[in-house]
Design brief:
Its cofactor is Mg(2+). It holds the Pfam family polyprenyl_synt. It comes from Kitasatospora cineracea. One of its GO terms (molecular function) is metal ion binding. The structure is a single chain. With 362 residues, this protein is mainly α. It has a single domain (3-357), classed as Farnesyl Diphosphate Synthase, CATH 1.10.600. The longest helix is centred in the N-terminal third of the chain and has 29 residues, at 3-31. A hairpin with a 2-residue loop joins strand 1 (111-112) and strand 2 (115-116). The chain contains 16 helices and two strands. The protein is globular and about 65 Å long.
């Protein structure tokens, strides 16, 4: 690891460390009946349990990349921390929690971040009432989404800025839902092309994980992001694509203990990921390999993951897919390096971050 990348990761780690305590304190305030908090009903235990599970998943870990991105986006134009950054960080992480809860319902995933998914926590609590468990998990995800907007509207920001930032957050949330919809739609295509996969990535993750934090950071620092939107979108698209390709690679070649979930989640559900797209292309002229691929995809048997891993290695995708992720990461780095009109320290962060995004192990 070079010194510049190490410096960028130290900055990200500093943001993460400061954020964890603030995030926990935010949940403490939400649950405090004296302070109004989330205004939990005076009777019934389900609302408090939903908030508890949202808190548990939210605080269980994660890279907090969104937190670092919005702080560094503010640092592009401001010399000191801007008011509203904590509220924005809490908002984007709650939006992420919302997405994780609903993703795990859609994927029927038992594990998330080394512990039970919210859906499976409810299934364990209501083994004889699966419909109730499903409904409670959906509502817990909805609660996280509304609390994300609330975090921005109840902070100490001027009303016009709070409204502008809440608009960014809700736009990103709507994009993520549309992304989830087309993520499901792509599995109805025999072989969706790369453009379709890029669109899924852009809407399902890039908008709320990268572009929204960039916009929110600039807004918190008092800068209108609109004149810079083309630059922000280009960077977010390149970095988001690199991240997703690497995530797809990790789903087959990563360490499950490090990832905090089993390998092959997307593959066992038959999801047409970048990896599957590459496998389909690589086996186009190999009928036997194509038959093996089709038989293994969408199979819940864990042995199918080993079959797909062998097939991917046979066709060298363990090397070519990381190279494709690196190509998009290099583009993101080159774009950020051209941001000469902004503060050099933050520019350096955005320039070197993409290299980490395609070498991380989780």
């Amino acid at each position: 690891m070079n010194d510049a990348l190490a410096a960028a990761l130290r900055r990200a780690a500093d943001h993460q460390e400061r954020f964890e305590a603030r995030f926990a304190a935010h949940f403490d305030a939400l649950a405090d009946p004296e302070g109004g908090g989330a205004r939990l009903p005076p009777h019934g235990r389900f609302p408090a349990r939903a908030l508890e599970l949202v808190r548990e998943l939210s605080l269980r870990g994660g890279k907090r990349l969104r937190v670092a991105l919005l702080h560094e986006a503010a640092a592009l134009v401001a010399d000191r921390p801007a008011p509203g950054l904590d509220a924005a960080a809490i908002s984007v992480e709650l939006l992420h929690t919302h997405g994780l809860i609903h993703d795990d319902i859609i994927d029927d995933a038992p594990l998330r971040r080394g512990g039970p998914s919210t859906y499976y926590a409810y299934r364990a609590e209501f083994p004889d009432h699966p419909d109730t468990a499903l409904a409670l998990a959906v509502l817990a995800g909805d609660l996280a989404a509304f609390l994300a907007v609330r975090a921005l509207l109840t902070g100490d920001l001027p009303p016009d800025r709070a409204l502008a930032m809440a608009t960014v957050a809700t736009d990103a949330a709507a994009a993520a839902v549309n992304g989830q919809l087309i993520d499901l739609e792509r599995d109805f295509h025999p072989a969706p092309d790369t453009a379709f996969l890029h669109t899924v990535t852009e809407y399902k993750s890039t908008h709320y994980s990268i572009l929204a934090p960039l916009r929110l950071g600039l807004l918190a620092a008092g800068t209108d992001p609109a004149p810079h939107d083309a630059d922000l979108r280009a960077y977010a698209t390149a970095l988001g694509t690199a991240n997703q390709i690497h995530d797809d690679w990790l789903d087959l070649f990563g360490n499950p203990d490090t990832l905090g979930k089993p390998l092959g989640t997307d593959l066992r559900s038959g999801r047409h990921s970048y990896l599957v797209h590459a496998l389909l292309a690589a086996t186009a002229d190999d009928p036997a390999a194509r038959t093996t691929l089709r038989a293994a995809l969408g199979t819940p048997d864990p042995a199918a993951v080993a079959t797909l891993r062998t097939l991917a290695r046979t066709h060298h995708l363990d090397r070519t897919l990381p190279a494709e992720a690196a190509r998009h990461a290099h583009r993101a780095a080159a774009l950020a390096a051209g941001w000469h009109h902004w503060h050099p320290g933050a520019v350096a962060f955005f320039t070197h971050l993409p290299a980490w995004s395609v070498t991380r192990d989780h």
